[in-house]
Amino acid sequence: MADFIKGGVCAAQGFQAAGIHVGVKTHASWKKDVALIVSDVECTAAAVFTKNVVKAAPIRVDKAHLADGKARAILANSGNANACAPSGEENAMRMCAAAAKAIGCKTEDVLVSSTGVIGQRLNVEAIEDGMPELRAALERSAEASDAAAHAIMTTDTIKKEAAVETVIDGKTVRLGGIAKGSGMIHPNMGTMLCFITTDCAISPEMIKAALLEVVRVSFNRISVDGDTSTNDTCCILANGLAGNHPITAADQAGYTAFREALESLCIKLAMEMASDGEGAKHLIICDVSGAKSVESAETIAKSVISSTLTKAAIFGADANWGRVLCAMGYSGETFDPDKVAVCFSSSAGTVKVCEDGRGLAFDEDLAKKVLSEHDVQIQITMDEGGASCTCWGCDITYDYIKINGDYRT
Amino acid sequence: MADFIKGGVCAAQGFQAAGIHVGVKTHASWKKDVALIVSDVECTAAAVFTKNVVKAAPIRVDKAHLADGKARAILANSGNANACAPSGEENAMRMCAAAAKAIGCKTEDVLVSSTGVIGQRLNVEAIEDGMPELRAALERSAEASDAAAHAIMTTDTIKKEAAVETVIDGKTVRLGGIAKGSGMIHPNMGTMLCFITTDCAISPEMIKAALLEVVRVSFNRISVDGDTSTNDTCCILANGLAGNHPITAADQAGYTAFREALESLCIKLAMEMASDGEGAKHLIICDVSGAKSVESAETIAKSVISSTLTKAAIFGADANWGRVLCAMGYSGETFDPDKVAVCFSSSAGTVKVCEDGRGLAFDEDLAKKVLSEHDVQIQITMDEGGASCTCWGCDITYDYIKINGDYRT
């Protein structure tokens, strides 16, 4: 079992971080807009990117830089997505070159990420000019990880940061991550950035396998508004300083322990993202059980958490379970609607509202209380098989519209 | 060419309509909640229903009643969807029986529709008790069609009603329709009801073919919030009183004229629905051209009009074209993003904001003016082929959240 610890991306041995304001965000000089994460030694590295056909320039650069499965640093900016923007790849490469020069490594060992407005030229000069200050701010501390976590935020209202510790071959192995994601989060990597560091010794093949497995059951099971972004990136650096016997195959005990620790970390960060959906007042946890397969359960749970009408009902603390059934029904999955049961539950209690596909009489006052809690669970039971899945989403609020009605200015 | 005329569902010869309050809507005694449309003689009939796996009881009844391709009347209520509700089919059948008795036809010649809250028992007694009054209110007049159009409204803010006239075999043929639809409208028949009457003489096979063809290019190209409903129904009655040579094959000139008239009618009603999306302030018209196929153009256009972020940008009159490209990118279609151009246009002018997949400098003041009009066009040009498609949607506003945050009370 992995235990949660402090320290974020600086929890693992041999990692330093920094986050400062250099001027990419022009309207808010007090807001950090560039983050740097550096390992003392070369790392095995892997990443998962957006499936959007329109891909931001940094993603194209990162793919090339990850061809050898190695990297040493991650440089990220907020305030500009460097997507559909003039000189996109050139500017992404200039970011890598500036970081490489500052820390003394090859340009190809730097990964780069951007998040913010699409279609405007990135002020790469500000990042280049700020590099000495960013380099000077690097340190291995909880504060440094915190600064980096803040520097990648856009409309996020809370920073997302977590770290876990596990034991492999008698050695303490740590994993830490920072993430951003608020609007546009959706299954298949809606705009989210997540940077993970670990001191585990693990081969490029196995770190990639672990990351793919874990992203599928964490970040790909959240949704804020159904839009997926041009910039989504989840990457991991592993520097091996924990001294465990290097993981090179999936049947090693160490691999299972590592994968479980990574899963705990990513589910924690994913839930924080869903919970911080733009303007969101509620985290919605949708559990589907009795499905014919995990895929079927996941499709149904995602349809429910993505339904704008269900999200609006949760915002209003309205036990409108008909919308839950309706969203299940248009998910594309087949099931017997006459064998569906639905409960709403939270720390305030549990209300069963539907059984055998029909409405039950229920205590409306209790339902209101249950749905007024921050974390609200929608529990769906079907009679199709033994598979289950949990997905996470959030409600839709006036503030979502406000935040997104005029984002560019 | 079909010309728009007055009269709604009473425009065609031999049709009467009525709309009154009987008590299904308990919170608003002044709001009509039951509509009846009756033909003087038996009609050929066809319908298209929701693809949602969870289907309301009236839909199951209608499918049985349409097995012979004949019908004489449509009875519809608002205020309760009779979906996932106790005694659903029994109550839908009781509605048919009551109407059949009142107008003197077979129960199987009555079609039934319901719209409103899911999961609560329908007050069918109120409909039965109100039947004599509803029967007495039947007449062939623009006022009667208006009353029926109002009686099927739920959160709709404007009634949807249209009629067209064309000439087939030297005979004047009229088609008229009423519709409701506001929340949950989406491609593949989100909660919408549409009832069409015509005096055209046409076989059951050909009226079904025409309806399927036309629904695909009208109602299935609109979206309000991505949710599709349990109750969607579009049905048509044709009583043959126009006296044209009966249409029995697709290669008859009459069929083309009829189909075109039906298309004009349905596109008009579909645009009114999109325009009246819950809380909407803008109609969004998305034109995609240069696509490799109509299907590809349609998938891309639907992805854009369904994107919550694009809808929020139009609400804010923000020329955030990056979100348009982003929505194109996650549509599932492949295309070269570097060959995409985007314009925003309206009666206030046209602003080109993106060319070759890159942002252009544009006049922000003009863009604001263009996007402040009610009808806003998003024109997307690609370089994949010669196909094009238009889809219709609306913006998302504070009022959408308000309307849907507490719908049941």
* Class derived from helix and strand content of chain A: alpha+beta
Order of helices and strands of chain A: EEEHEHEHHEEEHEEHEHHHEEEHEEH
Largest sheet of chain A: 9 strands, mixed
How large is the share of residues in beta strands of chain A? 25-35%
Oligomer: homodimer
Specify Rg of chain A, calculated over alpha carbons. 22 Å
State the shape of chain A: globular
Give the tally of β-strands of chain A. 16
Counted by DSSP, the helix tally of chain A is 11
User: What low-confidence regions of chain A span 5 or more consecutive residues with pLDDT below 50?
Assistant: 184-190
Q: Determine the N-to-C terminus distance of chain A.
A: 46 Å
Q: Name the pair of protein chains with the most residues at their interface, and give those residue counts.
A: A-B, 65 and 66 residues
The residue-averaged pLDDT of chain A reads 91
Percent range of helical residues of chain A: 25-40%
